[in-house]
Amino acid sequence: MSTAKATSETPLGPTGRPYRGFPTPPPLESHGPARIIALCNQKGGVGKTTTTINLAASLADYGRRVLAVDFDPQGALSAGLGIATHEIPTIYDLLIDPKRDAHDAIVTTAVPGLDIIPANIDLSAAEVQLVNEVARETILARVLRKLAPEYDVILIDCQPSLGLLTVNALTASHGVIIPLECEFFALRGVALLIETIDKVRDRLNPAIELDGVLATMYDARTLHSREVLERVVEAFGDDVLETVIGRTVKFPDASVSGVPITEFAPEHPAAQAYLRLARELVARGAVA
User: Fold this and answer.
1) Which DSSP string do the residues of 53-90 spell out, in sequence order?
2) How far is the C-alpha of 229 from the C-alpha of 136, rounded, in Å?
3) What pLDDT, in 10s, does the model give residues 245-258?
4) Which SS3 state, helix, strand or coil, does residue 286 take?
5) Among 79, 55, 76, which residue's Cα sits nearest to residue 67?
6) Which of 108, 123, 192, 211 could be a cystine partner for 175, CB 3.0 to 4.6 Å?
7) What distance lies between CA 155 and its chain's CA centroid?
8) Does the pLDDT at position 214 exceed 60?
9) Pairwise CA distance, residues 70 & 107, whole Å
C-alpha cells in the first residue's frame, strides 16, 4: 500500500493531524531518577489539576512510580486525590524548614504507584516568607532533588499565577506542560507564560523545555472550540500534543469522590484520553 493511500485512509484527529495510536509502554526494569514536569498556566480553570491527577494515575497504571506535588494553596490536587490536609506536613513545611526530611510530607494515595506531597492554605504565606531567602527561586528544586531517585516522574500542579511559587516550580522542572482550555480568552495569556519560561531558561534553569501544549475542555460540537484549537496548532505546531481532552461532567464527579477518572469511570472517553496522553508522553520521550 502506498504511503499516500495509507495517509488518506488515516482519520484526522482534532488537531488536524493523523490520529495515531501510541503503543502501550513496556514496564520499567528499574525506577528513577525522576523527570520533573510542571503543569503550568496562569489562567485558572483550564484543567491543570484535573490533568495532574489523571495523568499521574495513568502513568502509575503503566507501572511508573509517580509523585504528584500540590503547589497551589487551594489544595485542589490533594482534595481530588482524597487527602485531608489539616494537621499533616505539607509542601509548605518543606519549603520553610530546609532541614526537614522531605519524606515526612509524602502521602500514599489509593492509586498504586502514586504518591502525593499535599498543600493547603498555609502555602499562600510562603511567597511572602521566601522573598528574603538566598536563592529563593531554587528552594523547591532542593526539596525535590532528594526525592527524584525514588520516582520515574514528578508532576507539579502549579497555582494560577506567575509569582514566586510558579518560578520555583519552573526552576525545579525539566519540562512544562501547558493545559490550555479551548476558549478564546485562554489563548491571551499564553504568550506571557512562554516569555516567563524563556526567562527562567535564560537565568535559572537552562535545561527546561516545553513538553507540550495540551488542549482541554474541547467540545467538537462547537465551532468556537474547533477554531480555537486550530489557532493553537497554528501558533505552536508540533508542540501541541495530539491527545485532546474533551469537556465532560465526569471530571467534577470524580473529584468529589476523591479518585482519578481512570478509576471512577475507566471506560469513559475522558479516562481513555488521559491514558492516551500518558502513552503519548512516553512515546515523545517526556517520560521514561
Assistant:
1) HHHHHHHHHTT--EEEEEESTT-HHHHHTT---TTS--
2) 37
3) 998 766 777 776 77
4) coil
5) 55
6) 211
7) 6
8) yes
9) 11
What's the rounded Cα separation, in Å, for the pair 251 and 47?
Answer: 10
Q: Is pLDDT at 265 greater than 90 in this prediction?
A: no
Torsion over CA: 142, 147, 153, 155 (sign): negative
Task: Give the largest CA-CA distance in the chain.
Answer: 65
Please give the Cα distance from 254 to 243 (Å, whole number): 20
Please tell me the pTM assigned to this model. Answer: 0.93
Position 63 confidence tier, pLDDT thresholds 50, 70, 90: very high
Cell of 49: 489539576
Can you give 219-272 as a three-state secondary structure string? CCCCHHHHHHHHHHHHHHHHHECCCCCECCCHHHHHHHHCCCHHHHCCCCHHHH
Give 99's Cβ-side CA count (13 Å radius): 0
**C-beta of residue 282 within 8 angstroms of C-beta of residue 288:** yes
CA distance linking residue 153 with residue 37, whole number of Å: 7
Q: How far apart are CA 284 and CA 202, in angstroms?
A: 24
Residue 147 Cα distances to 12, 178, 204, 260, angstroms: 41, 24, 21, 23
Answer positive or negative: Cα dihedral of 246, 250, 255, 260: negative
Bridge partners, 214 (sequence order): 179
CB atoms within 10 A of CB 234: 10
* Beta bridge partner(s), residue 240: 213
Q: What is the pLDDT of residue 8?
A: 52
Residue 151: the pLDDT is: 98
Would you state the cell numbers that stand for residue 176, as one nine-digit string?
512544562
